[in-house]
């Protein structure tokens, strides 16, 4: 009996130790299982996943949200100017086509046809006159220098010998431009320089074909202010066999608006119009210290 007591105590102690170890093991296992259940999300469940920070989007990037940004080209004022520019360009193109179609049309001696042919040239003449009134000294100097270069090149070419009369006319207009510039009359200087340039271009075009092979009439973009050298027949059409409608006295002031070959269509101050040869006219110069030729 004395020996059984220690054995009983030892077995009881062992039982207590085993019980505690088992409890600790159960606690550890339960903690592990609960930890796995907390960190392992379900396959179809995305609510427990860690949320990724979403960058803030601007108002312009919101779906369905339109943000109107004022672009200069879309401003009302700029749009209005653009429409006006387009309209003016279209109008200018139409006018150019009208002038070209009339310039390439065969000339009809009928008076109504001649008046129709003159209308575009008259409009150009008025526009040029308004432009010349605003001419400045630098503009006049630049224009005169440009014409001088063109005339020198023309004189050095083979073209010069074919049109001595027209070449002399061109030189007269250039001299008048230089004289007007010296008198600070820049409006007249621009006008005469432009007429000289027009004569140079006319000579160049005429020499591209023989004397009487110019098939159509051409409108002068700058009307030429001229006067007759002597008694001259005013023809109803640009050829020698055409009927003479009247005679022009020497020094009669005329304005040339159209040419056909070496013929010029002119108007007089008293309202007569017709065709004369370009060899029968001089430049009409009206400047200070110059006599007014009528």
Helix-residue proportion: 40-55%
Instruction: Provide the structure class.
Output: alpha+beta
In spatial order, strands of the major sheet run: 6-5-4-1-7
Q: Return the CATH class of the domain at 109-283.
A: Mainly Beta
Order of helices and strands: HHHHHHEEEEEEE
Fourth CATH level, the homologous superfamily of the domain at 109-283: SH3 Domains
Transmembrane segments: 21-40
Protein name: SH3, type 3 domain protein (Modular protein)
Keywords: Membrane, Transmembrane, Transmembrane helix
Please, could you describe this protein's structure?
The protein has helices at 4-39, 76-103, 111-133, 137-155, 164-182, 186-206; strands at residues 218-228, 232-235, 244-248, 253-260, 263-268, 273-277, 281-283. The strands form two sheets. The protein has a five-stranded antiparallel β-sheet with strand order 6-5-4-1-7. It has a two-stranded antiparallel sheet with strand order 2-3. The chain starts with a helix and ends in an 11-residue tail after the last strand. It is rod-shaped. The chain is α+β, with helices and mostly antiparallel strands. A hairpin with an 8-residue loop joins β2 (232-235) and β3 (244-248). It has a domain at 109-283: SH3 Domains (SH3 type barrels, Roll).
């Amino acid at each position: 009996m004395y020996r059984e007591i220690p054995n009983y105590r030892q077995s009881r102690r062992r039982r207590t130790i085993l019980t505690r170890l088992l409890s600790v093991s159960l606690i550890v296992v339960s903690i592990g299982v609960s930890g796995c259940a907390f960190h392992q999300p379900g396959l179809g469940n995305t609510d427990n996943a860690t949320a990724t920070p979403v960058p803030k989007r601007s108002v312009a990037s919101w779906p369905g949200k339109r943000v109107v940004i004022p672009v200069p080209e879309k401003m009302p004022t700029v749009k209005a100017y653009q429409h006006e520019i387009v309209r003016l360009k279209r109008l200018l193109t139409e006018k150019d086509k009208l002038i070209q179609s009339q310039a390439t049309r065969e000339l009809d001696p009928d008076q109504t046809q001649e008046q129709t042919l003159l209308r575009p040239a008259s409009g150009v003449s008025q526009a040029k006159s308004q432009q010349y009134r605003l001419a400045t000294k630098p503009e006049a100097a630049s224009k005169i220098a440009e014409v001088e270069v063109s005339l020198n090149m023309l004189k050095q070419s083979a073209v010069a010998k074919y049109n001595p009369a027209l070449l002399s006319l061109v030189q007269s207009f250039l001299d008048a431009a230089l004289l007007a510039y010296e008198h600070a009359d820049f409006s007249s200087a621009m006008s005469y320089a432009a007429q000289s340039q027009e004569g140079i271009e006319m000579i160049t075009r005429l020499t591209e074909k023989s004397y009487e092979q110019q098939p159509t009439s051409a409108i002068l973009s700058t009307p030429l202010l001229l006067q007759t050298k002597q008694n001259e027949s005013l023809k109803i059409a640009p050829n020698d066999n055409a009927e003479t409608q009247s005679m022009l006295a020497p020094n009669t002031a005329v304005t040339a608006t159209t040419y056909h070959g070496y013929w010029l269509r002119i108007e007089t101050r008293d309202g007569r119009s017709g065709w004369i040869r370009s060899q029968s006219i001089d430049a009409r110069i009206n400047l200070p210290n110059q006599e007014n030729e009528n």
